[in-house]
User: Fold AP-1 complex subunit gamma from Dicentrarchus labrax.
Amino acid sequence: MSPSVPLQEMIRAIRSARTQCEERGVIQRECAAIRAQFRQSDNGGRSHNLAKLLYVHMLGYPAHFGQMECVRMIASPRYSEKRVGYLGAMMLLDEKQDASLLITNSIKNDLSHSNQYVQSLALCTLACMGSAEMCRDLAPEIDRLLRASNSYIKKKAALCAVHIVRKVHDLGELFTPAARSLLAEKNHGVLHGAVVLITELCERNQETLERFRKTVPDLVQIMKGLVISGYSPEHDVAGISDPFLQVRILRLLRILGRNNEGASDAMNDLLAQVATNTDSTKTVGNAVLYETVLTVLHIKSESGLRVLAVNILGRFLLNNDRNIRYIAMISLQKIVGTDHNAVQRHRGTIVDCLKDQDASVKRRALDLSLALVSASNVRSMMKELLLFLSSCPPELRAQAASGIFNAAERYAPSQRWHIDTILHVLTTAGGDVRDETVPNLIQLITNASELHCYTVHKLYRALLTDISQQSLVQVACWCIGEYGDLLLRGECQETEPVQVTEDDVLDALETVLQSHMSSPATRGFALTATMKLSTRITDNVDRIRSIVSIYGSCIDVELQQRAVEYNALFRKYDHMRAAVLERMPVIEKNSPGHTNGESTGEPIKDIQTLKVKQGEPLLPQQPANQVCDLLDLLGGSEVTLQPIPAVGGTAPGLFTNTSSTTGGDLLDLLGGLEPAPPAPAPTVQVYEKAGVALTLSCEKQSDSGLTVTLTASNSTDSDISSFTLQAAVPKSVQLHMKAPSGDSLPARGAAKVTQMVVLNNPNKVNLKMRIRISYSSQGSAFQDTVQIDSFPGLSAAGH
Assistant:
């Protein structure tokens, strides 16, 4: 290929290359020829060569050696060369390149050129790649061109001024007078540029915003002219007169009317006119209507106009275009808190969107449906949501279950309905619920004393049907252990009576213990339930003793520990077994200073003070009477009782998969180990913003080991989803983050998310931690970072 081939021939040769290697060879030969011609002082084909180089750049090959040629061609007096030179500057140069400073003077000269097309080239280049220094130098020239008589130049100058304002905020005051005068123009291009410039100025400066609020009547007149104007072939798009300008004006009105009643009143009639007269059968009309709705919802509009806006969004939900349905649900999600009744009118349409095939539409419909649940419609909405839960995709099941739990807890018409709803969810999606669901349901069942018989019968039948749902099985085992005597009676008015024998109940629990689907935590529930039945049945105590003794050599340490403790109760303390395994009292949720349901706040406070005063002399007195200590553990005395913080209910403390304080104390008492319980780790709040709070507590495991517990809560009125915590520590510190308790924070602190972080600091460096908090709320994503420089309860020397 000769060095002087035209651009078309080069493109044809590159496209005909069969391999990438062949293509590179063609480009390298052509670039070498272009370099050689760039070195010639008298080169008549400079624009031709630069055009070929720009095509090479578009293919992704290096073309930086053409930057200086762009500078020389911009300074050329010929328009054909200026055009290619400015195009090359926009593609090959940016504000970081030193060569960009060389064209500042050329741009300034061309801005004063007599040819409007040369001026246009300079304006476009400055708006594309002008640096802050260039903008400061050339801003007076742009302000001069904004006042020119040529509409073509004013349109380009307005858009260039937008770039300058974004680069240098202080220059906004320079363009304010000219921007206001542009609103009197008739040319749509100039008006469009003026509206964009005014919008940028108002967003940057509050004083400018107040000044431009006086232009609301002018903007209303321009908008009315567009709405009622007849057919104009120059501006018509699908029957709508210049929809691009209409959308820009509506966005500007939204900014000007926000938190201002006077400006809002001036545009109410216009917005009603646009909302009623715009054709909604075309995408163009829907775009204008959507901007109208956003403007109505953001300003201080009349109540009737807001209802009209919500109805427009309701019509969007019936549109065949999924994108329109999606943005409609996003908008409704944002206003459901302020215009709840208006959104409720479209509840049926929103629920129908749960059946949409698109996953994004289905997710938004779920969020909106959960937000629409209220005390008046909780039964009908829950019926639809439970139906959706049974067929929803796996990625939405956890979110749906969490939302149903929160709504049921907030609006449950009765305790029986509440229990039935949660059991239905556990039966359908028991593997996708949050960790705190089990203790929360246990607490609910404990408090509903009149429903104990009904609940244990229903859970027993569910256990016989399916043991794969771990959360359901855990609750069922707990209820059978607590209320097994009610199950064996067979007398239940609320449900169909079932005759159950002692062997049937023990067979069901043994099935759970032996099933490969049961997790270690579930086996712990089943073993504890079996042990509790030893005081509720009479004929099969030896069988229970045999079951418990088998797990005394279990490979799972937690299960083995419990079995050893229960065997000790049978062998050494059989006279106390009935008292130890008696029915759990009513559990009070989230009540610090409560143990086993009994308030011990003030006595504990006094005892802790006594321990501080007496110190070591108090400790040797502990093992003197282990029977009293055991009674103290069960709430029978107030001698040395320590509070156990209730996290989602106290009852599961005896059989969760983690180390239990109660279980540890019982083992210590039976084995004669050190009885002094550890003091609770101090907790401090390290973050609080926009209703989201994060607390931190530390527990020192060894000389270099540390366990940090992060607890997040949400005090806002809207649920938070996709909640994640990320942590960073110095390089010499080893970090291991365990799985969080969940990824959603219900509104008003209904539940919390806990994240445990294990740190190992072998070099004893000064410990610091940076935590990144990310979550989504009302369709918007939030992210923030907090630095932790000190950890509660740790000495500076240790960490």
About this structure: The chain is about 55% helix and 10% strand. The longest strand covers residues 705-714. Residues 591-675, 795-799 have pLDDT under 50 and may be disordered.
